[in-house]
Amino acid sequence: MSETNHPHRLRRARGFEAPGLRALGLGAALLALAGCTPNAQVPIAQEQTERELVLVQRPDATSQALGHAYKDMLVDAGVSARLAEPAEDPVAEVLAGRADVAVAGSSELLAALGEVPGAKDDGDASGAPESPESPAAPGDLDAAAVNTRLHALTPEGFAVLDTAEAERTGTLVVTAATGAGEKLATVDQLGPLCPELDFGMTRTVRATLLPALGLKASCTPRAIVELTDDQARGVLPVISDAVQVQATTLANSGIQDNALVVLQGSASLFAPEALTPVITTDGVGQDAIKAINKLSAALKQEDLQDINRMVSGRDALHPKKAAADWLADESLVSAP
């Protein structure tokens, strides 16, 4: 059995939602309402950026497409920009001064920026822990709290820009057949079923997901099948029944394209990772800030899945081409 492949120019089916995604949409809506103010003013005096900005993203095709999209937005706004060679830790590249812009998950960014001199985190009224050092522990902070905490930071020499509605938060998926046969639709139903289920996940995800499954779902899987990053970004392990439950992310277009069931309550097992740009403030003007925030405001979850679909499968586009096509589709840049 193979993953469903769709022509890269096929736009999303607006009337279709994979089971479980509708409930997740509420979380995205709450994030949008509780997050930072759109186009929040970054305290930078100069209007124009007078030097080249270097963007950096992870090596996977979806991240590279996002990097090209943000770069093209900057260029369209008259800002000189280029995309650097891929890096496994783009935020570290920015913090080390080897790049100027990276787009990362909100929890990942909160943890990294909490270590920057001058960063402040005064907590919020939610009663969540005040330390910025462990915001990514699953369930410690929900998406809105992470977003609030992240945008309260004031790291010296850097700025956190507007958070997009799109997220690459982890999730658990099963096939419709498994969901129906096991009467499995929510994380709360996993406990008694886990001894009969094989779970697929990467080694990195395993380190936090297994303890969370035990603590929050009383779940000890029958077996853990270790997936590569590329396998986890697709859905072949679960649709081929190599595993019955797969850990992937909400950016994965294969969830919708293969009508997989997203287990409700999965968000409690993963750190929220809404896409958020970080930028150095050295020599940066408001023109660059506005261009980046404009793209983030337009980037919804279905857009991220569209981009993922465009760079996946047999008909995959090069990330640069996928970014250009998506920007044109959304009328975000000037016509060539």
UniProtKB/TrEMBL annotation:
InterPro entries reported in the protein's UniProt record: ABC_Gly_betaine_transp_sub-bd
Top-level division of the source organism's lineage: Bacteria
Ranges annotated as biased composition (Low complexity): 125-139
Residue ranges of domain ABC-type glycine betaine transport system substrate-binding in the record: 53-328
Residue ranges, annotated region (Disordered): 116-140
A matching Pfam family: OpuAC
Record's protein name: ABC-type glycine betaine transport system substrate-binding domain-containing protein
